[in-house]
Amino acid sequence: MAVFHFLCCLLAFVVAVNGLDNGLARTPPMGWLSWQRFRCNINCDQDPLNCISERLYKDMADRLAADGYKEAGYVYVNIDDCWAAKQRDPVTMKLVPDPKRFPSGIKALADYVHSKGLKLGIYGDMGTFTCGGYPGSKFTMATDAQTFAEWGIDSFKMDGCYSTTDDFSTAYPIMEFYLNQTGRPILFSCSWPAYEMSFNPNYPKIAKYCNIWRNFDDIDDSWDSVKSIIKYYGDDAYNFSSVAGPGNFNDPDMIIIGNKGLSPSQEEVQMAMWAIMAAPLFLSNDLRNISERSRNLILNKGAIAINQDPLGIQGKRLWQIGSIQVWLRPVLPNGSYAIAILNENYGGYLSPVTVSLADLGVVDNGTYVLNEVFTGSYIGTYGTKDSVVIKVDVSSVFFGKYTRKS
């Protein structure tokens, strides 16, 4: 601990003037991440297709490249916890991939992923161990950053297990400094505010050093979990939405569309809300075994366009009555808006919601064309004071876009 704090003091003056400068995440990053679907399954003897191994990540890279995901923007293949051997190299102190599950090594895996036109991400921890009990980076940040660069890594997710609350505000800036020092653009995904939820996270500082950051509980494959995340983002504790923008985005966690926990309409809710929230779109599912309906939703051009809107403004919940929520996000072209009306669970029947742009705080006298996003269907043309009645079924969402006409 004393060594770590000495290093923090030594580098404090450096990181204070060396904010994030990697040119990445100008829009929310998109790709695939193993954790929610595959967790820490290391039993390759009995479950070779689903264990954390180079085979799994190659399979997902193949599917991203061949099934239309890459063209839609899903380009990151992200390794999560449990990839490493339990011990570092005793001579170099470098991290070592598990030799049985990653026999070719991470550099070879990165080369394979890159050959598909994709990017490879990897996982680590700022503490002494990762959450799964593998070697952490607490005393080896410079070595680990350089190792990742040598391997050809494009994204690094740093967790916060086996640490103290005093460490976060120094460890993440230090790691960002070392990542920048490698000269390789490496997207930095932080878990910093997720460990400080009750301590008023310093979001402006977090945004200075991280491209994306987790700030709430891990997502589970369930409707209740999705709803809890939406509520947290709607409540917007400490006004974290205000720091979102090109280069820096809040991360409500993975897309679970295509798994077993959500109904078709609930999958639409997640896709719509993650688009409204300007969230990273990291799929965590089995792309080798996904329904056409779920695949089409993940690839929906209208939803992706709103998620990837260059303004990068995070949408906000404007009001909630019972289980009905209305969210709004400014998007391009200038003066246009994405809207989501969510019915979490309102009596089991269609709930009519009457809304106008004026109700949502839009004060100009423009004319707007309203389309439903998923289908592109035309709803109508409205002035800001003109109301429209939208019927939203239970556990469902209306996802629309008001495009300014004049």
From TrEMBL:
GO terms for cellular component: lysosome; membrane. Residues 322-384 form the Alpha galactosidase C-terminal domain. Pfam families: Melibiase_2, Melibiase_C. Its main location: other. InterPro entries: Aldolase_TIM, GH, Glyco_hydro_27, Glyco_hydro_27/36_CS, Glyco_hydro_b, Melibiase_C. Keywords: Disulfide bond, Glycoprotein, Glycosidase, Hydrolase, Lipid metabolism, Lysosome, Signal. The keyword Glycoprotein applies. It catalyses: Hydrolysis of terminal, non-reducing alpha-D-galactose residues in alpha-D-galactosides, including galactose oligosaccharides, galactomannans and galactolipids. Residues 1-19 form the signal peptide. One of its GO terms (biological process) is oligosaccharide metabolic process. It is found in: Lysosome. Homodimer. This is Alpha-galactosidase. The gene is LOC106057369.
